[in-house]
From TrEMBL:
Disulfide bonds join C62-C89. Residues 1-32, 33-91 form the Sushi domain. Pfam families: Sushi. It comes from the Eukaryota. Keywords: Disulfide bond, Repeat, Signal, Sushi. InterPro entries: SEZ6_CSMD_C4BPB_Regulators, Sushi/SCR/CCP_sf, Sushi_SCR_CCP_dom. It comes from Dreissena polymorpha (Zebra mussel). This is Sushi domain-containing protein. Transmembrane segments: none annotated.
């Protein structure tokens, strides 16, 4: 079993104890859950300073002349998905 934020890989591998009392085969291991790069924000970008792994937060910013509509933050969840609604960058309206 792995700690929160990690997943068990190589579980289907067959391990056998060899004649010299050493394991033969690929041992299962815990790997950090990765979400990868979030979808692009048109007229903006994500700051991923904490990475793209479980628990990390990405913050969207817009280019000059545009403003965020929606939540600026997304978070990598336990399933390896970017959790939250992706924002839009829309032109600023001056009155």
């Amino acid at each position: 079993m792995c700690q929160a934020g990690f997943k068990l890989v190589n579980l289907a591998s067959n391990l056998t104890c060899g004649s010299s009392s050493q394991w033969i085969g690929t041992q299962p291991e815990c790997k950090i859950i990765e979400c990868g790069q979030p979808s692009d924000v048109k007229n903006g970008s994500y700051n991923l300073s904490s990475g793209t792994h479980y628990g990390s937060i990405g913050t969207a910013t817009c280019v000059a002349g545009y403003e965020i509509h929606g939540s600026a933050n997304i978070m990598c969840d336990i399933n390896g998905d970017s959790n939250g609604s992706f924002p839009d960058c829309t032109p600023c309206v001056f009155s």
